[in-house]
Amino acid sequence: MTDCNTRIIAPSLLAADWSKVGEEVRRAEQAGADWLHLDVMDGHFVENVSFGPQFVAAVRPHTSLPLDTHLMMTRPDKYLDRFIAAGSDRITVHVEADHDVAETLGRIRAAGLGCGLSLNPATPFHAVVPYLDQIDLLLVMTVVPGFGGQAFMEAETMPKVAAARTFREENGLSFHIEVDGGIDQRTVGIAAAHGANVMVAGTALYGQADMAAAVAAMRG
Q1: Does 35 map to a domain?
Q2: How do residues 133-176 score in pLDDT, each as one tens digit?
Q3: Model pLDDT for residues 177-206, shown as the tens digit of each residue
Q4: For residue 62, is it within any domain?
Q5: Is residue 97 domain-resident?
């Protein structure tokens, strides 16, 4: 597992051209991306629908990069096995969703996958504290999830990133701290300064003509 202080750049396929997904996946890989981030939205937990396990399975043959699958779903536990079978390397679920969080995290770990937990901008940090010793990634959403292109919510979210870093250090843990939403070549520095090391970006990477230069700039 990559050290939790190493900066990881994870382009979000939500911003890619899905009509040529194989090419878009290879474009990210050739640009120097570390992971690929897949945002799964069910139209219930968030007010948008994206894709399901079939899309993850379609991406899998095109890359050896880790597939970082983020389930923005009301019942991630009901669909978990399908995303495991589709080829996800890490699955992140929400603390706010309608499931037994500890049980779901246990199932992800038992399948041999990386195990992530996410919280929305309105959710206080203490909601995830009981589970931080059970995960290898905490995803702090830096926009209200559901749609791309939103502005980075610094005041609401950076104190949680900083709290996560402090908690990790004080308790001898080693989980990654990931941020997603409004991450670009400017806000990546703000997130890193507060303790984030995994940077998910959509339009700031896929929207650039020179994706390699954008990845390099984001890496710092």
Answers
A1: yes
A2: 999 999 999 999 876 667 899 999 999 999 999 999 999 999 99
A3: 999 999 999 999 999 999 999 999 999 999
A4: yes
A5: yes
Split into its structural domains, the chain has a count of 1
pLDDT recorded at residue 148 = 63
Global confidence as pTM: 0.96
Range of the domain at 48: 8-219
Q: Which of 34, 42, 68, 180 is catalytic?
A: 180
Residue 3 has pLDDT above 90, yes or no: no
Tokens found for residue 185: 């070549």
Catalytic residue among 34, 39, 77, 184: 39
* CATH number of the structural domain spanning residue 96: 3.20.20.70
Verify whether residue 180 is a known catalytic residue.
yes
**Residue 3 maps to a domain:** no
